[in-house]
Amino acid sequence: MISTKAMIGKDVVLGHHIVIESGVTIGDRVRIGHHSVILQNTVIGDDVSIGNGSFLGCQPFKNSKVIHHITDQKGLVIGKGSSIGNGTVIYAGSQLGEDVMVGDLASIREQTNIGHSTVVGRNAKVECRTEIGNQCVIQTGAYITADMIIEDNVFIGPEASTSNDKYMEPTKVPLKGPHIKKGARIGNNATLLPGIVIGENAIIGAGAIVTKDVADGMTVKGVAAK
Amino acid sequence: MISTKAMIGKDVVLGHHIVIESGVTIGDRVRIGHHSVILQNTVIGDDVSIGNGSFLGCQPFKNSKVIHHITDQKGLVIGKGSSIGNGTVIYAGSQLGEDVMVGDLASIREQTNIGHSTVVGRNAKVECRTEIGNQCVIQTGAYITADMIIEDNVFIGPEASTSNDKYMEPTKVPLKGPHIKKGARIGNNATLLPGIVIGENAIIGAGAIVTKDVADGMTVKGVAAK
Amino acid sequence: MISTKAMIGKDVVLGHHIVIESGVTIGDRVRIGHHSVILQNTVIGDDVSIGNGSFLGCQPFKNSKVIHHITDQKGLVIGKGSSIGNGTVIYAGSQLGEDVMVGDLASIREQTNIGHSTVVGRNAKVECRTEIGNQCVIQTGAYITADMIIEDNVFIGPEASTSNDKYMEPTKVPLKGPHIKKGARIGNNATLLPGIVIGENAIIGAGAIVTKDVADGMTVKGVAAK
Lengths: 226, 226, 226
Fold this sequence. Notes:
Chains A, B, C: It holds the Pfam family GMPPB_C. By secondary structure, chain A is mostly beta strands. The first copy, chain A, has no helices and 30 strands.
């Protein structure tokens, strides 16, 4: 189903059972696999490639525990030349730069901005209101919490985990994720606590639990098994 | 494809390429996104909202290593006013209460009961025969093993991990997941061993490895990186 | 959409909205759920069961950060009697043996071989060029990196994490994942560093950070929370 109110560019290749809703703009030479769904007002740049079964431009939903979700986000924007995998879920109200790659089964929530040439790995989860710079690699399965800042050229290892909720219960303290500065590298399955700052070019070892700020250029490690 | 043997309520909004099989009951004012599949005998309450590409009422499958899976589960029940995200997989034989929220790409297996107003986060994985209480938050990517009990008002942080298999090989010892009592809070990426009891209102720090019972109200923490 | 250039066996059961592309071979008595997509040149053995919304035979994609991906892989092969869950993503250029089970929302990349009767759990992620033996269990959510060897009868616990990239930045050092020998068992949420060898029948405790080789039959554990 392709809405008559969508704008489709030149030389676009579309798979079977695709849904393109009204207000969508699809650039030239875009390729979309089977079963993908492009929801209202999404803007897809030229030369973007989208896999099978991806859902782009989704609105947040909620229940009585998460009443703050704003379920009327504006359109998603995907920059020129980006690649989106299979089975991804990307929300309206976010913006991906040019040459971004999003792996299979990854999800990205609303109000998030991702710079150019950044990789969001397979099964990675990026929450809302997070800023991610250029040329970053967010590896497979990593968890990027809400209200977090990731500067340029950061490497986040597979399955690394972050959080933004110090008290793990409703409080008046605003939620705040980690701030990871330029060029920092986080090992696989590391655990970062809320609100900490990881300095420029700092290195966090695999599996480390990081409870406080790490200065520029420092290396911290967890305790190895015996 | 909507089976003539399904019962569809009033003012239901259905997307494109939906499959609704025989014996399904859909309540009033239910909304279902594109490409979702509602399998045999699933019962969906009034005012439920379902995203795109979700598969509800799936049967377990198996190979010669997991021969105990029962592949003929009865219908799934989803309570009134619940919200189910995009790309979720929820099995037959389970029951979700009212006002439950299930995030994108989450999965819930058979014979699991979830109380009212509980959140099962994006990419969370809930195994079979587990009981989850009311008003719990199971955060993004958390792993809830089989044969586990989670009481009311529990918070499970992002990417927290549980297990039920002490010997990691076939034995005569029955599998047993952790028992997490009322109001306990588990930090992100914590690791819980099989069969342990986390007491009421206990707090488990981010990244902690919990090998034995934790008393009511106690706090335990892992070792921070250096 | 079933291509006229696909070969479909006897007594095959197909769901709605299925796509089967050209050059695909489907064995006898295969069952495929709704919305699944079988891409070019995939070969599916007799008695294979595939869930809903699975994408089989996908090609890798890339951006300027991951230019080494080879996006013209040959067909995927799935052995006789295997079970593939719902919402899975499996790439072309890989081979699954007989009686393999792949859980819901799991993904397997190109150039990977998986032996017979092995389980790849729900949400597990298996990267490219990895060899996995017979009768292994890769539990729910585990992360199996690229260029890794897993011998027969290995157990990898839920959410266990591996890596192959010691320097977490582009270097001339080849990437190398862990080598896990016969019968070894890895606890849930354990962290394995690049290139280490886990000996035969070794046991790695839940949550352990393993930074160096573990000898045959040895047990290593992480530090429990206090």
